[in-house]
Design a protein that fits this description.
The protein contains eight helices and seven strands. It has 223 residues and is an alpha/beta fold. Mean pLDDT is 81; it is low at 56-61 and 209-223.
Length: 223
């Protein structure tokens, strides 16, 4: 993998992985995160799929297009317009013995070393498929430098025992995953910015519309 020649990727916690199918919930500070999971995930027994948006505008979503070209994507329409079909595809991957990796925050984060509040879809997919959730902390990808060590820390599976039914159970499960992910991320941050090449690579396919909107709004207010 090309990223492997530019970065050092260290994966810890592979012994925690279940013998059966599971959902992976990872934090998402960079466009490189799903590609790193695809290239370095230690469980070769099952095919790994990435849950991500299908962008109709090819000026964005290039990373997701790369994943789809490799037939590893479970794409969805932003805005939830195809939620029923997407849920069917996501749970079919898990029920078929595959792995599904979900960026639980629901968007790119601009934070290193901490996770945004997780979306309840993490728990919803896992409950419907009857599989545990494996929390995965990715650190070091927000700002990329040549030779930098990226750490992928795999936590213990969060199981389905003792949960309420329906959406309440999905929320309970998601909250459990949030707590596990927060613990894995403690002390895992590097805010040093790289040089021009590293900054370019770091932001190459990063789509952060809330930052763009903020700049546009500021510009319009100043006009």
């Amino acid at each position: 993998m090309a990223l492997g020649s530019y970065l050092r990727v260290r994966v810890r916690g592979a012994a925690h992985l279940p013998d059966s199918a599971y959902l992976i919930c990872f934090n998402h500070p960079s466009w490189t995160d799903p590609l790193i999971l695809l290239g370095f995930w230690p469980d070769a027994r099952r095919r790994l799929h990435i849950f991500g948006p299908r962008e109709m505008n090819m000026s964005v979503g290039k990373r997701n297009a790369i994943i789809r070209w490799g037939e590893r994507g479970v794409p969805f329409q932003p805005g939830g317009r195809d939620i029923v079909e997407v849920t069917r595809r996501a749970t079919a991957v898990l029920r078929g013995g595959g792995l599904l990796a979900v960026a639980g925050e629901g968007r790119l984060s601009d934070r290193e070393g901490e996770a945004l509040p997780l979306e309840v879809g993490v728990g919803h997919f896992a409950l419907l498929a009857g599989v545990p959730v494996v929390p995965v902390a990715i650190s070091g990808t927000r700002w990329i430098r040549f030779g930098k060590t990226i750490r992928v820390t795999i936590g213990k599976p969060v199981t389905l025992g003792g949960l309420a039914r329906g959406r309440a159970g999905a929320r309970q499960l998601t909250d459990r995953v949030q707590r596990s992910l927060d613990v894995l991320l403690q002390g895992r941050h590097d805010t040093r910015r790289p040089g021009p090449v590293g900054r370019w690579i770091s932001e190459l396919f990063n789509e952060r519309p809330w930052l763009i909107e903020g700049r546009d709004g500021a510009s319009s207010r100043n006009e």
